[in-house]
Specification:
Layout: E1 6-12, H1 14-24, E2 28-33, E3 37-41, E4 46-51, E5 59-63, E6 66-70, E7 73-76, H2 79-90, E8 98-103, E9 111-117, E10 123-129
Parallel strand pairs: 1-4, 7-10
Antiparallel strand pairs: 2-3, 3-4, 5-6, 8-9, 9-10
Length: 140
């Protein structure tokens, strides 16, 4: 795994967080220091959940068709994986923070996206791009 992204976040109770990340999203665990932190394979990226007593503070910013929470993190998935994660969420007791919708419609940056919240208030954006090859192009 070269060039993978690493992010460490406040997870609240790790056992509760594991239920969300592993049972609902389908992620796998890695290295850990029991009671302190655990690594999650977040679609090829290293997400480290730290046991904390605090929740994330956030605000909303306007982006195309809605106001998105900042901070947030997420992943770009292939369409089939995106649909699988949506099914897992919809068959769980997790509610969407922002229901799935398409934004930047008709542009090369068109995407379907949704936002969910983990048990500690961290906001995740899960998306699939219509044209992933243009991800780092400049909009014209």
């Amino acid at each position: 795994m070269t060039n993978c992204f690493h992010l460490a976040i406040p997870a609240g109770n790790i056992k509760t967080a594991l239920g969300f990340y592993c049972d609902i999203l389908g992620c796998k665990t890695g290295n850990q220091e029991e009671g302190h932190w655990i690594d999650i394979n977040f679609w090829g990226n290293e997400l480290t959940l730290h046991e904390t007593k605090t929740k994330q503070v956030r605000e909303r910013h306007a982006v195309d068709m809605g106001d998105v929470c900042v901070p947030h993190f997420g992943v770009h998935l292939e369409p089939n994986d995106f649909e699988e994660v949506k099914k897992r969420i919809e068959s769980s007791d997790i509610d969407y923070m922002d229901n799935p919708y398409r934004r930047f419609k008709g542009s090369k940056f068109e995407q379907e996206t949704f936002f969910i919240e983990d048990p500690n208030g961290n906001v995740l954006e899960i998306k699939t791009m219509s044209h992933p090859e243009v991800l780092f192009e400049v909009a014209s």
